[in-house]
Design brief:
Layout: H1 2-31, E1 36-42, E2 48-54, H2 76-84, H3 91-97, E3 101-103, H4 113-121, E4 130-132, H5 134-137, H6 145-158, H7 161-172
Parallel strand pairs: 3-4
Antiparallel strand pairs: 1-2
Helix pairs in contact: 1-3, 4-6
């Protein structure tokens, strides 16, 4: 049932939000010259997939977890995208393609070995990663791997269609801030 909801929500989201995506893309061209950010992330069964986002950091920024990045790496437009969560919009394509779900554990990088170990212990990689979830709306980020892996596992053990919708509406309503960047 959740895959059907993922497909429908992402399909209609892309269909209705493409004009906003186009505007953000054009602004991003002026901001960094390369508005789409594609990065290999850990997916279901620890298989790699290419995550798509609007670029929020300068093109030459080192590829590390967000909480290890500096605020000086984020462009002004990127700050707006992060605060509004519009940087996540291209991930609807990942959801449509089946690489992600709207709700699930945030996909991490392969170099986040502590988080990978903690998630693996708890069976988190048996599920698709997501754009949002209990960890995000609880404001738990990837800088606390044990706490995040525990929250991810809790969410996945108890995930219902009602919870799925609750997490989506909480995120759209502004709850949660995503991964924090060090000052």
């Amino acid at each position: 049932m959740i895959r059907i909801l993922d497909f429908l929500f992402s399909f209609f989201g892309i269909l209705f939000l493409w004009p906003i995506g186009l505007i953000l893309y054009i602004i991003g061209l002026f901001d960094t010259g390369s508005p789409i950010f594609i990065q290999e992330r850990v997916g279901k069964q620890k298989k790699p997939f290419k995550l798509m986002k609007f670029r929020t950091m300068y093109v030459d920024t080192k590829s590390v977890a967000t909480h290890l990045s500096s605020t000086s790496s984020v462009t002004k437009f990127g700050g707006f995208l992060r605060k509004s969560k519009l940087d996540e919009l291209p991930q609807l394509i990942n959801v449509l393609m089946g690489d992600m779900s709207l709700v699930g554990p945030r996909p991490n990088l392969f170099n986040q070995t502590d988080l990978i170990a903690e998630r693996e212990k708890r069976g988190v990689y048996n599920f698709l990663p997501g754009i949002t979830g209990l960890g995000q709306i609880s404001e738990i980020d990837m800088s606390t791997p044990v706490e995040l892996a525990e929250k991810d596992a809790e969410m996945l053990r108890n995930l219902t269609v009602s919870d799925y919708l609750k997490y989506i509406f909480a995120t759209v309503g502004g709850k949660g801030q995503g991964d924090r960047i060090k000052k």
